[in-house]
Amino acid sequence: MILGSIEAGGTKFVCGIGNENGEVIERISLPTRTPNETMPEVIAFFQKYRVDAIGIGTFGPIDINKSSSTYGYILNTPKLAWQHYPLLQVVKEALPVPIRFTTDVNAAALGEYQFGAAKDLKSCLYITIGTGIGAGAVLNGALLEGLSHPEMGHILVRRHPEDSFEGCCPFHKDCFEGLAAGPAIEQRWGKKGVDLSDRRDVWELEAFYIAQSLVQYIMILVPEKIMIGGGVAHQASIFPLVRDNVKTLVSGYFHQKELNEHIDDYIVPPSLKDNAGLVGGFVLAKEALDEAK
Ligand code: ADP
Ligand code: ZN
Fold it and tell me: Which of 115, 129, 201, 216 sits at a 20 to 30 Å CA gap from 207?
């Protein structure tokens, strides 16, 4: 079985060939330019192989409603060249195999659930903190989806009393993403996150916002593990700060060891590292193949 996976991101498209064991056989990374430039390269990569099915995890928002006329489209993205782009249809036309289509973070959550940090569990949540913030959750093997995919980056958080940054979400200003994604860090402090590693105040404030959001996800979904990925999570120092803040906010409400003495194993980096989304694409591809049988 040869499975294909596309992880479509705002800065790069990662395409891979793999199998049902989550093994990556070949992988390429292409810069995200316009659809007319990037998509022929994506298609050409897969045309070298006889793929049986493809999984797509893409930046959003996207239409995942199979009965909608714009199913498979990228919707209202700030990346203007990709607005209303029929990503699924374009791939399907060139590569007519079973395809499953979801968000990048849903794919990463599935990858970690099947083959990564949550492989022995029944549920998990994967959050990325990068140019934007998004999260996907798997509960009993199924992705959490309703009217649409979740938009967990746009929840409201309590502001830190000393934080005067107004927030930079184009829709909500000071939602979680507007206060804590990479661009918010850069605008608030006047430097990119990567150049602020030694500023403890930066990461304390960041952890203050991340922890509030995680606590809301925990209260609502009670996932068995949380993975934090994305560029900002490369700052390893945020992990202990986030865990401490989560414990403080939860305030002993849960008796489970995961939220107490074992919290170091509860809020973790993705164990598939930067391949979580790609490997999740193989899981999606396998699901598409099984559904088509
Ligand atoms: P994308 O969200 O575009 O897929 P990333 O997940 O790499 O890409 O996120 C990019 C964002 O993460 C940028 O805002 C960047 O400044 C920030 N970032 C990247 N690396 C680091 C780092 N080591 N520390 C803090 N912030 C970082
Ligand atoms: Zn928002």
Answer: 115
262 lines ligand 1 (CB under 6 A): no
* R_g of the chain computed on alpha carbons: 19
pLDDT digits (tens, 9 = 90+) for 199-239: 999 999 999 999 999 999 999 999 999 999 999 999 999 99
Ligand nearest, relative to CA of residue 277: 1
CA distances from 163 to 156, 189, 193, 208, 246 (A): 15, 11, 17, 11, 19
Q: What is the pTM of this model?
A: 0.97
Ligand 1 atom 24 nearest Cα: 194
* 270 CB within 6 A, ligand 1: no
Sign of CA dihedral 99, 101, 105, 106: negative
State which of 188, 194, 238 you would mutate to test the pocket of ligand 1, scoring each by most atoms of that ligand within 8 A of its C-beta: 194
Our count of domains for the chain comes to 2
Domain that holds residue 47: 3-103+274-292
Domain co-membership, 23 together with 74:
yes
Domain for residue 27, yes or no? yes
